[in-house]
Automatic annotation (TrEMBL):
Keyword entries, A-Z: Cytoplasm, Metal-binding, NADP, Oxidoreductase, RNA-binding, Zinc
GO MF terms, alphabetically ordered: oxidoreductase activity; RNA binding; zinc ion binding
NCBIfam families associated with the record: adh_fam_1
A GO term from the CC aspect: cytoplasm
Entry superkingdom: Bacteria
Lineage start: Bacteria, Pseudomonadati, Pseudomonadota, Alphaproteobacteria, Iodidimonadales
InterPro entries the record matches: ADH-like_N, ADH_Zn_typ-1, ER, GroES-like_sf, NAD(P)-bd_dom_sf, Quin_OxRdtase/zeta-crystal_CS, Zinc-ADH_QOR/CCCR
First-listed, main subcellular location of the protein, grouped into a coarse class: cytoplasm
Positions of the Enoyl reductase (ER) domain: 12-333
Protein name as catalogued: Zinc-type alcohol dehydrogenase-like protein
Quaternary state and interactors: Homotetramer.
Pfam families in alphabetical order: ADH_N (PF08240), ADH_zinc_N_2 (PF13602)
Organism this protein belongs to: Iodidimonas gelatinilytica
Length: 336
């Protein structure tokens, strides 16, 4: 089968950062689906894993943790899907990735592709949707059905992939959303997605938020990096919650959190699959829930840019765009 892989961890400008290779087609076992991959999307996690380091892979390594496609075959323990089903999923960081014609994936972390979306539009969603959903509803314990109507949330890094779906999920839960954006195009993007207010995260945010009439935020989601930690601590209400997706080495003073009895939560959407948690099927359930919301017109895809076909040149281009830090929404590579 065709695949895009790496053997050396190189700067993305290096033509050998990714290679077009031919690999054996895998065979499903247990709960695995064999998926014929139609489109993939590229996320910051891909660029972090590919980042230059002194490691050489003995066999080509396939990255990629977002895909949509068609079930080609199933393992003996599969009960949720059958060959011919259209699916979308984010995958398992401990296994071979989605930048290949065929991929093995556990059915319990796979959802039925939204019927109203094409493969490229669907591939844009799984990883960021799982991350945003778990951050808001599993970690911060916001009620997704509106019981917390009127509460406020500050989404820092709202123009990226996770923030783009996070805005929509927060609005669907009837929250008041303050989104951050630093460029006119990302400000327009987050407003289009439903943000009630926009502040610039490259300028002091405390003053901007309070100028809008909010002394504190009920919830804060940090969807870029932890350089905004002290701002978040200042803005969170007493007994409020902050969730972050960043694995940071920056200092994180905790005095302010303690004095407010505020809580800090970490979100890592690969945790369920990585640790084979008893509730890993919840990712199947929530992807199906979001697919239904999309088909009902309540949530839209966050796709912004499409490259085609899936090959080393276009995977390099997608990584390069993410590494500029100026991408909005999601970047997808489609078709073989």
């Amino acid at each position: 089968m065709k695949a895009v892989a790496l053997t050396h961890y190189l700067p993305i400008e290096n033509p050998s950062a990714f290679l077009d290779v031919d690999l054996p087609r895998p065979t499903p076992d247990g709960h695995d689906l064999l998926v014929s991959v139609k489109a993939i999307s590229v996320n910051p996690v891909d660029t972090k894993i590919r980042a230059p380091k002194d490691i050489i892979e003995k066999t080509p390594r396939v990255l990629g943790w977002d895909a949509s496609g068609i079930v080609e075959a199933v393992g003996p323990d599969v009960s949720l899907f059958k060959p011919g089903d259209a699916v979308y999923y984010a995958g398992d960081i401990t296994r071979s990735g989605s930048n290949a014609e065929f991929q093995l994936i556990d059915e319990r972390i796979v959802g039925a592709k939204p019927k109203s979306l094409g493969f490229a539009e669907a591939a844009a969603l799984p990883l960021t949707t799982l991350t945003a959903y778990e951050a808001l509803f599993d970690r911060l314990r916001i009620d997704r059905d509106g019981a917390d109507k009127g509460q406020s949330i500050l989404i820092i890094g709202a123009g990226g992939g996770v923030g783009s779906i996070g805005i929509q999920l927060a609005k669907a839960a009837d929250l008041v959303v303050i989104a951050t954006a630093s460029r006119p195009e990302t400000e327009s993007w987050v407003r289009e997605l439903g943000a009630d207010h926009v502040v610039n995260h490259r300028k002091p945010m405390v003053e901007q938020v309070r100028a809008l009439g909010f002394q504190h935020m009920d919830h804060i989601a940090i969807f870029n990096d932890m350089r905004h930690w002290e701002t978040a601590v200042e803005l969170i209400r007493p007994q409020g919650g902050i969730v972050s997706i960043d694995d940071t080495d920056l200092p994180m003073p905790m005095d302010g959190m303690k004095m407010k009895a505020a809580s800090l939560h970490w979100e890592f959407m690969f945790a369920r699959a990585m640790h084979q948690t008893p509730d890993m099927i919840e990712q199947h359930n929530l992807l199906n829930y979001v697919a239904d919301e999309i088909d009902a017109g309540h949530i839209r895809t966050t796709l912004d840019t499409v490259f085609s076909p899936i090959n080393a040149e276009n995977i390099r281009a997608a990584h390069a765009l993410i590494e500029t830090g100026k991408a909005k929404g999601k970047i997808v590579v489609e078709g073989w």
